[in-house]
Write a structure and sequence with these properties.
With 352 residues, the protein is of the alpha/beta class. It contains 11 helices and 16 strands. 41% of the residues lie in helices and 16% in strands.
Length: 352
Amino acid sequence: MTFESKIKTIEWINNCSRMIDQTILPKEFKLVDVKTAEEMYYAIKDMIVRGAPAIGIAGAHGVALGAIELSKTEKNKEEFLKKLNQKAQYLKSSRPTAVNLMWAVDKQIKLANEIQGSIEDITNALIKNGIKLENEDIEINKKMGDYGAEVVPKGATILTHCNAGALATVGYGTALGVIRSAFAKDPTIKVFADETRPRQQGARLTTWELTQDGIPTTLITDGMCSYFMSKGMINMVVVGADRIAANGDTANKIGTYTVAIAAKYHNVPFYIAAPLSTIDISIKSGKEIPIEERNHEEVTHINGDWICAKDVNIINPGFDVTPNELITGIITEKGILKPNFVDSIKRVFEKE
Ligand code: MRU
């Protein structure tokens, strides 16, 4: 059973990629049309579009935009493919942690190399495939939602961190997709949303999209989760992921690891909701996941105002890695993977 969410985060329309500008939500709702691969690089880097599955689709659209640009001047197919590959590498360098970006861009480049036809045929195939991946993303999220809803206790209060919602995907969401599907079955469930410093995706984006859907949501600051767990006020945690290693170690927004430790201590089930495209079976453990270091202004400033001493040292990793032993289950479109994750992940990929 699914719950319809009206939010479409990114969409291929009139030969451009139309996306919700997530840097200005919830103050302003604005759509941005991205028309070139370079514009897409900056849309991802500057987080106009963010969230692992959404930036995957943005990458796929970016390759299609690159092909459109090149097809206007390039007549030699080999040169076209060489230059397209350069644009693809450039797109992949926009953000390092979410593997969905590499997954989707590589899929497009593989397709471009397989097409036997003309430059025009390749360009059309890339556009078509970008739209296909876009549509599949929503279907995958709904499947995850259905699986995940089965493990949500009746009347539960669910804690989530960052935004793993419709805004982090094409629509419906991963962790928030589980919440949407659970809410469709049981309207007594409630959500606690972590603020998620420094960029406040929880406060700005998760509360915005859940309250639009009428799902009861309480905003808390990041340091409050243990307090509410100790009071028995949180029954389950569900978060998204940016990259999952072959042993289940999971990179997600900075602060997720702290929530997982608190959940373990208080015996609160801790779930990851992520599509198989977020699992990077080429890496054995979370130690190999590249962690993005972000602009220090995200820490020193709030809404453009300095909030600390001007000569203080700053460090700003965008993600942390939750070790697999803290994870109860990984909710995917193929079912819920359980520990031992080395085996359950291996098994699900063998069937692919
Ligand atoms: O830096 P962001 O906002 O792109 O980080 C997003 C997250 O960490 C999400 O939780 C993750 O991508 C899962 S999205 C379904």
